[in-house]
Each structure stands twice: as structure tokens, then as C-alpha cells.
Amino acid sequence: MVTSTSRRHEGVPVTQTAVPPAAAVSAGPTPRPARRRSWSGWGFVGPFMAVFTLVFLAPIAYSIYLSVFRTQLIGGTTFVGLENYARAFGDAQLWAALGRVSLFLLVQVPVMLGIALLVALALDSGRLFGRDFFRISIFLPYAVPAVVATLMWGFMYGTRFGLVGNINDALGVALPNPLAPDLVLAAIGNIVTWEFVGYNMLIFYSALRTIPTSLYEAAQIDGAGQWRVIRAIKLPAIRGALVIATIFSIIGSFQLFNEPSILQALAPNAITTYFTPNLYAYSLSFSGQQYNYSATVAIIMGLLTMVIAYVVQLRGMRKEA
Amino acid sequence: MTTITTVTPRRSAVPRLRRTRGFSAERPRRSPLLTVLTGIVLVYSLLPLAWLLVNATKTQADLFSSFGLWFGDSFALFSNIGQTLTYDDGIFVRWFANTLLYVVLGAGGATALAVLGGYGLAKFDFPGKKGVFATVIGAVAVPGTALAVPTFLMFSQMGLTNTPWSVIIPSLISPFGLYLMWTFAAEAIPTELLEAARMDGANEARTFAQICLPLLAPGIVTVLLFTMVATWNNYFLPLIMLKDPDWYPLTLGLNAWNAQAATAGGEAIFNLVITGAVLTIVPLVIAFLFLQRYWQSGLAAGSVKE
């Protein structure tokens, strides 16, 4: 970590650390350019990585370890190899949960990101009255905890005393119950969209703001219209932000837990213990005591998410060429 | 398409973040139609919050009998707040203090680690740098439960479950914060400045503290706000780690109050759940509104660019 006398960290004697060859070369009275390869960067990244190892890497390693064992009340813990994975492969509940989040992902993510992008473009166009008010207000739901958002929407969905019930009474109609089994996924999609439209809008809007004005001037000289500017300049310029937002949304969809878990109290018949893979893994370990199989389910979901995120990233970046 | 984005040199007169908004040099004409269309999203965003505020003014009886988007017969906001704060020996106040504790230590620590790490990644070339990036990004995709179960088991062996540490320690890592700080530091700190400082004989710690930290301020505020929201709103982690309601944060407490109605013999306190929800949101909204000038510039300068 400590490489030369001129770059010593407080309280760390130079002689104590083993100096790697690369750093030893750069050590000397004359400072070199900042980008030279040395170990001093670890002094800054080290603390993050130390805690990261404790709270991310160690549990992941422990998960993998758990997933190849089976614990029984009688017989104790035995090594079973990939048996848990084989069980997951034929597990209808897991497949049902996976299908549910996939459907959610295919519908909710495009709707949410589409709205967010349209609002960001509208704000960036400078053609709105009260732009700052719009930006702050639409972002506001992000500051609302998922628990509060879900409770709030859950109350509003209520056909007895919620808004849906109010509308039914006032208009003499019978709107479908959003918390019924066939609609509850859409109801959750609405909550998640409400929570994150503003957040994604802000990410897109911030990216749009970093486009240099000179590009717009050049486009104007070329006689390009608004739509052409959006297609030729704005969208390509924020592709990185779009890809990152898509990846984070995919990860979020696969990890869906808070909203269905909290809604369960209001809609116990519509939301099963295996409604989403995450909820399933949670139920397995905390009410079923099946830690080994739960870890297996979680690892499968993690791998699946990583693969999809990776594919999205590849596709998103390839278009650039 | 890409040629447009690469060839045009930036004119010196143009500030990095555009002052004049919009596409033409003169101010674009405001559009009522576009405002109305965007207004639909605005209504969608604000209506539930309006519902929450209105219903925080109702007694439980009114909650069931009056129209959701208008006030009931009585105005019970203050008595609701009073009841929320005193119900069950003032447990809500305890939850509030717990949440503050988790936010100060968790979000504060997470921001410090992200700032140091992001700066290190942006401004140093060190062995294993690529590995660090791949590991952090890869780990983000691992679902919460994959970590939750083993972390719970690990922490329970270490005797940490059901203590504040079980919530604080995992909060210390914010991969998004690290990413944001990394892009921000790469933009905000000119490498020449670092070279000059080293030339003058400043060590790395001093260069960082005296030269780079002030430049990083908008980025730090941004990361702090996002980690604050994450810890203030955290639900899953405390749910599995904490058994004792005395250590609950607000989110877990509110959910417990809501679930109370469904349990046998439990008292339904929907008016307190709703008022408590308002009290939970208010501090964050205030933080966002007051600091918006700082975090927005931080987000813009640190935003993803290709």
C-alpha cells in the first residue's frame, strides 16, 4: 500500500509494508504522472473492499457452501453435491414464481422506463411551464419507503373503504378488485412503477443535461427538427444511462420482494408464499427452516440475473458500433 | 450518428452544464399541450401522497365512512399525531430514533467508503483494479435473499443478530454509491491538479483531504442522499435480522402496526399507520428539497456518459 516516502499514509511506517516490484520502480524523489501503476490506490479502495468482502463475498461463498449440503433433523448435515439444484430444476413452485417475475419484467420495465424517458425528454426540451416543479414532484415518490408506498396503495386498492370502493359507491359500478388473484401482479407493477418512474427520469434527465449545446447548434444549422435531434443526438448520447437503468430494473424485477411481502397481509389469498423467487427463498428459510434449498434457489436466481444483465449490456453497447 | 457526437469541439463560451435550456439558441416556446401531457404523470405521482395527507387528518371511523380524497367530518390530524407518538409507550419515537441511528452510521459510513473507493478507482491505476470492478458489479446482481440467509446465519454465529450492528454493517456497502462517486471523481478532479500537489510534496492522504474533497462535495451530497434514502427505507434487512421491536426502524414498525389488525385480538389502528407513514416520509422530503441544488448538480456531472 505504501510505496514511497512522498506518498506515505499517516501512521504507517514505510518499512513495514512489502513493496511490490512495480511500485518499487516508481519509488523515488521525482513524482511520476498520476496514472502510473502502483499499490497506493488500494489505500482508498481497500476499506470499501474489506467491508464488501464481509457483507457480500463471504455470504455468497457461504451460500454456495450451503447449497451443496442437506440438513435433516435426523441424520444431520450431509454432502449432497448438486442434488439441491436438481430439485430446483423440477420444482413447479419455483418455475411458477420465475414465470411471474418474467411476465412482470416484460411488462412493467418497458412501461416504467418509457414513461421516465418521455418525461425526461419533455423536461429537457425546455418547453414545459414550471419545469422545476415537475422534476421535483415526479421524483418525490422515490423518497417514500416501499413499506409506506405499498401500505398506501394497498389501502387505496381496497374495495371496502379504499379509493376503488369509493368510486364503486359513488358511481354505482363494481370495479374489479385490484387485490384479486388475477390482478394482483398488475397492482404490484403499478406500485413499483409509481416508486421508480421519477428516479429513472432523473437519471435520464441528468444524462441529457451533459450533452454539449454545440451539438444542438450544429443540428440547427443542418436544419434538423426536434424529433430528429432526439433520435440522432439525445438518445445515442444517453444510451449508457438507458442500459444501466434497464439493467438495474431487471435486477429489481427478479428481486421483487417488499411489495408482495407487505401486500400479503391485505391479500393473503392472492399472494402465495412462492409468489416471487425471492419470497419463495425467504419462506423456505425463515418459515420452512430449509436453509440449504433456500440458498440454492437464491444462487440460481443470482446467476440468472447476472446472465440476463450481461446480455442486455452486450446488446445495448453493440448498437453503438 | 456517432460522428456527430464525436467531432464537434466544444466552444469555449459554452459552459459544461448548459445554462440556456433546450435545443435552439433562443428560448424555446413553452408548450401548453406538452405541459398538460406531462401533467398526467405529475398527477399520478402526487395523488397517492395527497390521499395520504388527507387521510392522516381522519379518525378511524371517518377513514371507513368518508370519501378518500376529501376530508372527513372531523379534523383529527393533531390528535392522530399525538396518538402516534404516544401509542404503546411511545414506541414510534423509539423507532424514529433507531432509524436515525441506522441512517447516521449506515449511510454516513457507506458514503465515506464510497467516496474513498470511487476516488481510488477514478484516479489510481493499481493491480487488481479490473477485478474490483467486475466483482462489485457482479455482486449487485445477486438477489437480496442469496445474501440475507447466509448473512443472517453468519451474523447469528457472531452474536450480532437482534442488535443494531446487524442492520448497520450491511448498510455500509453501496455499490451504486461507489459507481456514482467513481464517475463523478473522474470528471471533477483534473489529473494535472493531483500531479501538481504531488510535485509540491503532499502525500496522498493530504492531497485527498485538502484538494480533492472540496471538489468532490456535490458528488458526496448526492451519494449521501441516495444512501440515506436506502437506509431510511430499508425493510428487508431489518425484517430478517431483528426480532425485538425495540430495535425496529420505522418501516418495520409501521408494517407491524398494519399487520396488527389482522391478528387475533389485535387492535386495528389504521389511522396511526397512515399518520405514522406521513411522519416517516416528511424528513426525507425535507432533506431532498433543501439539498436539491447540490445533489442535482452532483448527479448531472457524475451521470453515465459513454
Structure description:
- Chain B: It is found in: Cell membrane.
- Chain B: InterPro entries: MetI-like, MetI-like_sf.
- Chain B: It comes from Cellulomonas oligotrophica.
- The complex is a heterodimer of chains A (321) and B (306).
- Chain A is mainly α and 321 residues long.
- Chain A contains 14 helices and 2 strands.
- In chain A, strands 1-2 form a two-stranded antiparallel sheet.
- Chain A is globular and about 80 Å long.
- Chain B has helices at residues 2-7, 32-55, 60-65, 77-123, 129-140, 144-157, 165-171, 175-188, 191-199, 204-232, 236-241, 250-260, 270-301.
- Chain B has 2 domains: 34-74, no CATH class; 89-298, MetI-like (MetI-like fold), CATH 1.10.3720.10.
- Chain B has 306 residues and is an all-alpha fold.
- The model of chain B is unreliable at 1-25 (pLDDT under 50).
- Chain B starts with a helix and ends in a 5-residue tail after the last helix.
- In chain B, 44% of the residues are buried.
- The chains are: A mainly alpha (321), B mainly alpha (306).
